[in-house]
Amino acid sequence: MKLFLSPKAPIAPTKRSKTREWFHSLVFAVVAATLVRWLVLEAFTIPTASMEQTLLAGDFILVSKLHYGTRTPQTPLQLPLMHQTIRGTTIPSYLPCIQLPIYRLPGFAKVKRGDKVVFNCVTELDKPIDLRTYYIKRCIGLPGDVVYIDSLQVYVNEEPQPLYPGLQYRYYLKTQERLNDRFFSRYGIREYMPVQGGYLAHTTPQTAAQLEQLAHMQEIHPFVIPAGSLNPTIYPNSPLFPWNEDYWGPLTIPAQSMTIPINQKTLELYQKVITLYEGNKDVRIEEEQLWVNGQEVKEYTFRQNYYFVMGDNRPNSVDSRFWGFVPEDHLVGKAVFILFSLSPEKKALNKIRWNRLFRLTDKL
């Protein structure tokens, strides 16, 4: 008996629904954007005035992670394309239960003095490193450099540092005239306050020279905090070092493999680095003694590099003068490009700063 099998009918291809196609496209876009954000570029909005006049609050910049090398994630359990919280809420966007070691892939550049670097806030110790708030400052000192500030002038390894074009100081303007917002806006001055006999204003040396030519200006000079006047909020927050934001240091920036002796002076200067950023799980300081993993040590060798950073708006910048050094594992990348800029004070189309669109930050 022969069996005759009819030929199989061709199987029609499964037709994807539009919803499924849209979902697959969305997943692909999120994965691609996450990889780009992690490996190559990340967008960042400047929130404060600490870098004015160089970078303004409201500048929307791109941060290159390829320059210094991309970091591997420390916190793998986090929602893609979100930092710290779910957008529009206060709900954390991550779970801290799994924390991985941080490694850095090879970059094509080293941090240089003058670079505008983006890094994770070093004082947010309650969050994982990769989920701390982003800050941006100018790198002033590199690992191993000796930094000090004398009457506003910054010295690195005894060499005076350049006055960058947007660098601002606090000036005293002595005048009998009543100056209004329109006057200060004309000279690009965003921060000022009336004082006895005139005004204190944050501006550049170039603008101060222009103001000095005005007939109603009786006197203009930088406002400097006297040497020896201790500011207890200034690093290392010790009466042994009566420093302030205008007179600071000298102090050597820790470098990987640099060894220091342990004594009262070095513990005052570097105890925060040793206890907070070196990955020492069992470390304590008793009087003038340092204990690491249950052993008293007479000298200490740093495990990573550190950097000294400052804002270009020197009188309104909380930076390394206040909280110390930026550990290398906190570096995010280099600010390279301004996509667009919105003024927080203005409305509608007037908010857009057209002259700042698509500008390279190295030109500022």
Describe the structure.
This protein has 364 residues and is of the alpha+beta class. Helices cover 15% and strands 28% of the residues. The chain has helices at residues 18-39, 181-186, 205-212, 264-277, 320-323; strands spanning 41-45, 59-64, 116-120, 134-141, 146-150, 153-156, 159-160, 169-175, 192-195, 198-203, 217-222, 247-252, 259-261, 283-286, 289-292, 295-297, 299-301, 306-310, 326-327, 331-341, 359-360. Strands 1, 2, 3, 4, 18, 19, 20 and 21 form an eight-stranded antiparallel β-sheet that branches. The chain starts with 17 loop residues before the first helix and ends with a strand.
> Which structural class matches the secondary elements?
alpha+beta
Percent of residues in helices comes to: 10-25%
Number of helices: 5
* Shape summary: flat
Order of helices and strands: HEEEEEEEEHEEHEEEHEEEEEHEEE
**What Rg, in angstroms, do the CA atoms define?**
26 Å
Q: Could you name the ranges where pLDDT drops below 50 across 5 or more consecutive residues? A: none
Biggest beta sheet summary: 8 strands, antiparallel
Gap from first CA to last CA = 91 Å
Give the amount of beta strand, in percent. Answer: 25-35%
Number of strands: 21
Mean pLDDT: 93
